[in-house]
Known about the structure:
With about 240 residues, the chain is of the alpha+beta class.
Amino acid sequence: MTQYPNIFKRFQGVVKVIIEDMMAASALPANLDLSRITLEPPRDATHGDFATNAAMVLAKPAGMAPKALAEAIAAKLAARRDLGVSAVSVAGPGFINIRLDAASWQAALAELLAAGEGFGTSTVGAGVKVNVEYVSANPTGPLHVGHGRGTVVGDVLANLMAKAGYDVTREYYINDAGSQIDTLGRAVYLRYLQACGRDVGEWPEGLYPGEYLVPVGAALRAVHGDALLDQPEAQWL
């Protein structure tokens, strides 16, 4: 419903109000549970702009056939011309489809344009602090398409939450210290030794063996030449 929230907000309580009026007039039993009533776009857009399951969920407790109840509710909805209803129909066993007139959509577009960038902003988040960490690529391995996907998903999620009124902090975690980075440094140094023509023998267990470090070792040699050869670990690490 995000494409027309104001229209939806205008309609979402109307069905329940109509049913409450029918209960008050003794056309329906009193105290029916209305919590399961939904209003949403129909699966087939040719059926209308909104569809409600009201008759389907209330038929049994109301002691009525779903279609008969749907027709009764539909007649009440069709009479609400003040809401811009152009057509109401009953489909299948009792779904109620609602179509709006052109003026309703034109008014919705006017609201959207008037709101500008503020369109869709809400306060549902109530300023609650939220931390969204995304991207945060592990430096011990190469980037891949999943990191790009995480960037998009994380950024969109953070933007949506901020739009909904949350106090959002975006975090890009950089892991550039600790044992993982020491292990990466040792693996890179071995690739550097290989770039210098040294035979490092069997690759030590626990070090990153990925081929992606080969060009890193070559780049080190291009910058430092043989200057790092035979240096103590404390210096090159």
